[in-house]
Amino acid sequence: MTISSTSPDVRNLVAAWLAEDIGRGDVTTNSVVPGEAFGRARLEAREPCVVAGMAVAALCFELTAERFDGMLEFKEVVGDGGRVEAGEVLARIEGPLAPILTAERTALNLLARLCGVATITSRYVDAVAGTKTQIVDTRKTTPGMRNLQKYAVTVGGGSNHRFGLDDGILVKDNHLIAAGGVTEALARARSGAPHGLRIEVEVANLEELKEALDGGVEAILLDNMSPETVAEAVRINEGRALLEVSGGINLDTVRSYAMTGVDLISVGALTHSAPSIDLALEFLESELEE
Amino acid sequence: MTISSTSPDVRNLVAAWLAEDIGRGDVTTNSVVPGEAFGRARLEAREPCVVAGMAVAALCFELTAERFDGMLEFKEVVGDGGRVEAGEVLARIEGPLAPILTAERTALNLLARLCGVATITSRYVDAVAGTKTQIVDTRKTTPGMRNLQKYAVTVGGGSNHRFGLDDGILVKDNHLIAAGGVTEALARARSGAPHGLRIEVEVANLEELKEALDGGVEAILLDNMSPETVAEAVRINEGRALLEVSGGINLDTVRSYAMTGVDLISVGALTHSAPSIDLALEFLESELEE
Amino acid sequence: MTISSTSPDVRNLVAAWLAEDIGRGDVTTNSVVPGEAFGRARLEAREPCVVAGMAVAALCFELTAERFDGMLEFKEVVGDGGRVEAGEVLARIEGPLAPILTAERTALNLLARLCGVATITSRYVDAVAGTKTQIVDTRKTTPGMRNLQKYAVTVGGGSNHRFGLDDGILVKDNHLIAAGGVTEALARARSGAPHGLRIEVEVANLEELKEALDGGVEAILLDNMSPETVAEAVRINEGRALLEVSGGINLDTVRSYAMTGVDLISVGALTHSAPSIDLALEFLESELEE
Amino acid sequence: MTISSTSPDVRNLVAAWLAEDIGRGDVTTNSVVPGEAFGRARLEAREPCVVAGMAVAALCFELTAERFDGMLEFKEVVGDGGRVEAGEVLARIEGPLAPILTAERTALNLLARLCGVATITSRYVDAVAGTKTQIVDTRKTTPGMRNLQKYAVTVGGGSNHRFGLDDGILVKDNHLIAAGGVTEALARARSGAPHGLRIEVEVANLEELKEALDGGVEAILLDNMSPETVAEAVRINEGRALLEVSGGINLDTVRSYAMTGVDLISVGALTHSAPSIDLALEFLESELEE
Amino acid sequence: MTISSTSPDVRNLVAAWLAEDIGRGDVTTNSVVPGEAFGRARLEAREPCVVAGMAVAALCFELTAERFDGMLEFKEVVGDGGRVEAGEVLARIEGPLAPILTAERTALNLLARLCGVATITSRYVDAVAGTKTQIVDTRKTTPGMRNLQKYAVTVGGGSNHRFGLDDGILVKDNHLIAAGGVTEALARARSGAPHGLRIEVEVANLEELKEALDGGVEAILLDNMSPETVAEAVRINEGRALLEVSGGINLDTVRSYAMTGVDLISVGALTHSAPSIDLALEFLESELEE
Amino acid sequence: MTISSTSPDVRNLVAAWLAEDIGRGDVTTNSVVPGEAFGRARLEAREPCVVAGMAVAALCFELTAERFDGMLEFKEVVGDGGRVEAGEVLARIEGPLAPILTAERTALNLLARLCGVATITSRYVDAVAGTKTQIVDTRKTTPGMRNLQKYAVTVGGGSNHRFGLDDGILVKDNHLIAAGGVTEALARARSGAPHGLRIEVEVANLEELKEALDGGVEAILLDNMSPETVAEAVRINEGRALLEVSGGINLDTVRSYAMTGVDLISVGALTHSAPSIDLALEFLESELEE
To answer: What is the ipTM of this complex?
Structure first.
């Protein structure tokens, strides 16, 4: 997925987020800033980060300019995926000041969060560099921002797990309890689910791993195991199923898991605990249009 | 504000967030879990926190149960504002297993974030205990979740700043540039804005503070000043305007600012960097309904 | 606020209003008017008025032309705020006849009402000319048209009171009953409401006025008092609180109230009883496009 | 049509109108009124009127109570169609005070306008009592309120003309210009429109009346004629087409038109210039729930 | 009605239908097709048909291209109403391959159904060629597609009956039962319905026909009668009411009904059983953009 | 999937479809049928069919009854999956006549189409009885009705293919052209798509089949091959990939394909050419409520 600023989903979300902040109108700007004031601003990073979400930020400013019957120019300086240092300029904005001021907070709120996801993802990806392991996200995303956060994960070099409950089968421990065991659960999954979906099962130990492999599953989620146990799981698997590791993995331990040869390491923190990057909008000058 | 699970705004948001995860349906649960499976689960905290958002979590489960034409019981054990330790039970859920499994991730995603906001807020509030200073939030909220996050701030003991650009006037540095100075900006604000709104101005130093006081503003935001400068500002103010402090304040420094006697300290981190609390849903047992 | 024809709120409202009239399509125009018929029309006032809402009227025609895959030209002759006599032309419209005929009624329905609001407002404003008093509106607006009506009030020279229940605090008699008295009500308002909002209280007599002043309120609504009592209230106030007068004031009495020196006179009739101005669309000629 | 408070259209409109006023929440009520305050209020007319819209008013209070997770009782004292004097009670409301206060303005704004339409309609209907003429409305309705206003017209004893451009054919002078004359217009209407719709043509004089009758139209709108000319038109018509009169008719002249024997008199003022009836909500007492 | 690709109704429907297929994104195209791949395709008929819906098909491709921030060219080769043989090209599409592939199925699903309606309609129309009888549709349309299907009926040479329950009066047998007989039903219809609508009654035999004629109805639906009985009905009617025939008429029998001189024959099969025309999109070549 | 009448998706769709037919109101029923008329009706099949969609039909009547502030009872006699003969009763409906009449057409339009899909599906399923082959649907569904049609396929004994472009990967010939060949396409799919989705490729001949098997695909769509070629493909496959057959298969030929041992036969006609089953609503009696 790429973010398309003209996709109806993205436009509708951004419009709703702008409406959440603007409400009936920006009373400060509307009363204080002359309608004909014109100027330039630059969007800067105040800490190092991987940039993600520039199209969405631009859309915030552009949709707001439409409210004022005006047009502004959002010139991207660094594109998504760029790595910047503190103080670097991400974009220059030129046009009427009112919509720039009105859109500022929503644009920064979004961009700061998406850059945060891309940045933390890139750290995990860097940590496993040289191994065959992919860093993948989870469904532990911020409600309403899943697609954008998952996009930011790919910008940071990660891959995407399921986008929702409807595009992948992942049988977890609770499902096994509800179904009455692995055999029954797998039989039900195989007969009841669309044939285009792989069947993945979560296992808590090596016994369950073997049971799942005997059941012919195509992917296995190794939950909360030590690197040593994971390494043993890789040996047992013999390349049959795709192996995913999850649970309590952090930047300090991720490489030791990757060295076992697993295919995927999923990290909830990419989206539930990504830092918000410090960004700022600096106004350079202002003049009244003549 | 309190969260009303029957407010149309909250219901629509939660329904949209559930739809984001459920999409065309939970293929795993639908194929693996027998429709007649019935059971109990408990919602637990895995780390200490201040609880916020229980009504929204309940709504996730209830709206999902409606999709399955079923009904479940969500029994709240700890209400919003409760302080819990790791391992404590927040709620017990009883009913058909399918909707519980389908709603689980969205409910936890929301609750974990709202508990996070309440928890970090409570730390700031505790840090200024005994002073007259209020901890307030900012507009640096997660897009789409502003009202819920601001509610969680109050649960944690904080107060709310503006809810949007339309219910308060805050003239920032960029507005001053655009308006052509403090005098002009204040004159414009006074004549152009609805009379029900107070006028607050951001100042960067004590000279600007005096200028704002001379202009008769009702609230002043002291931006990025040391505790010493803030103390001096309090003296100069002589109780005339409401004084708010903001910028680079953390748990280590917040008390030294509060000791100066300012009215408000606003902290963006309450909403842009709150931790996501670790929560879990444990299934206790399962049985087929007869 | 200015009406922006590209604001999503305004566009959505106008589209909904057009849909209310057009339904599944204009069966008369679609069957009677040849698709290729082209012509000119002029929009006229049939009685003197202050013009307001031209951008919304233009939007009615433009959005309807889009339905017909056509484009028309709406040339504004008199802008918002212009004062016209009976027979004056407000705009000229040129293009395919079908969308002009289909949009006509909705456009006139809107424009007639907004001109009505601006016109009656201007009469009140004229009546207090030379005094310091501002004429302000109330929340007694037509459901669905609040923002547009409040815009028309400003076009007529008036000012806006609250836009809704969320951007201003006005403690009325019923609130006082519910809260258990002025002291309790003010204490609750001061601690519970966002600090960016002024606190205004309605008082019914001079005793309550003094009580409110003692409570330090920032604005006071003098309800249903005679000009003499209002004059006494102004003396008692000594410039401390903003004073607003309301209740049973009409064009004959408004000046006597303004002469007392109050700050604001709010008039519900600006929006709940504004006359609908008589407007007409005259077709000048018609020809088939070749 | 009757107003059904459970119709999705009515509920959605009322919800949108409440949202227009409530916005992010009623800051006055939320901060000043204790959540547990409970009481009674009565809805009164302050001037004589025909009542219309009680179900919509009730819906305003009920939907608002849902926001507060509460329930209130709206006891209708006078139903739609009732004629009341100044001071009469229309309804009694009992329940938590907060939602009553929050819903009050929207409920009164709606009810005052609908009672106004029913009241003015009833005056026209009374004026033609004893004749065969029906008083009908037009499409000169308030945008967004057409169906409710047309319902109020029937409550006042009037009948409804077209609800929109899609459920009736009315060929006006501009259509004739666009089509190139009566003959061509009627031929086009007959072949192009659904066969379930009658064809009505507007005529400006008796020559056009004859032409229309020769063309076999089923209804004729006599535009802006004197009672004498209308009487002549009735004679010429000999009962063939339905005859409607319109244009500049008021309460003083309407009976003289009705006496001519026309079938319908359409009056734009029923909806574009109906007075807003003065209504009030009186709180009787208040107590805290125990 | 003509299909306007810029009408808000049509755009919203098409956008919703695209969303139904695309969901969170076209994972095949997004992963397999390079973003810069560019090419040409042609849209072909694989069986003879009357073309209808080209503007809607074009809209599918254009709206999808917007999602990819791209633009493609949809060149219509055969317009609505054109009759084509198997193998004929309807349109040529040129542009980025990704949106063409993503939109393909929705576009074909729509176009195949609309061409189907136009094609079957044209067969009925051809079958009654030379008579005065019009072929009309019914309300037995596919939910969600009524307006488009009714448009396709007109493309095929047919006419439209009611578009919904609100733009025509058709009193059926069940209404007669509910009202308590023809006399009562007609009296109620005449007094209760807007005067712009004709009154049509369904009759099951010639006795009822006479009763309806005596009641002065303007149109009569002859339900499930033989051609002989219909011929007798035409004689009895003597041109007074519009006569419509319905019930169990197919391509073999339609002409014998038309020969009786009835005005309208309504055929539910035009929309409830129209064949889906076999169409295909052929890719001609592909190249990477440089 | 099962149809849940309380799922927001289903309710919203049904409400929109009812609105499409009802528009501003059922003028016939509203004027002709007394509001207090009460009665019973039965829903019958007029030809043999497999029943599907009873919950949706019930919802049509129930949602319409809400509009009339009434309640009716819909008693299902035959549930989804039941096989009925001509003349059998599917449901009995009891309550106020007005909503029954108003909802009738939409309910029948929906039910007739869903029963049609279930019925034709059951014929294909019966035709392959005793083989291991599953009958599956395609994305050639009616826009707006995909989920309901796919549900009806399962009622008829079939299985579901992809629900949209986002929950399965199917690389078709056009994708191969765009990607530049099978090897490149598979490599791209494997690296770019979420790991939870199987990769299916369409092949046109046995050479491509071998190439796909070498590429390690998990499912192969054999397009437009004879039963003999399919049998050869089954032999070559040796159970490695899931084999699906598609293209030009009808009720006469489907068994010969199933006998080859393929896993799936997908049939577009299940949804694009299902017959509309002839259903009727019979009113039994009517009486006025006292």
So the answer is: 0.94
